[in-house]
Amino acid sequence: MTTVEGESAGALPDVAPQLRALRRRRGLTLEAAARRAGLSPAHLSRLETGRRQPSLPMLLGLARTYGTTVSELLGETAHTTDPVVRAGRAEPVEAGGWTYHQAGAANRAMQALRVELPYTGLRDAVRVHPGEEWLYVLAGRVRLALADAVHVLDPGDSAHFDSLTPHRIAAATRGGAELLFVHTLMQSSAADLCLGDGPVQRH
Question: What's the number of CA atoms in the CB half-sphere (13 Å) around residue 87?
Answer without folding.
Answer: 0
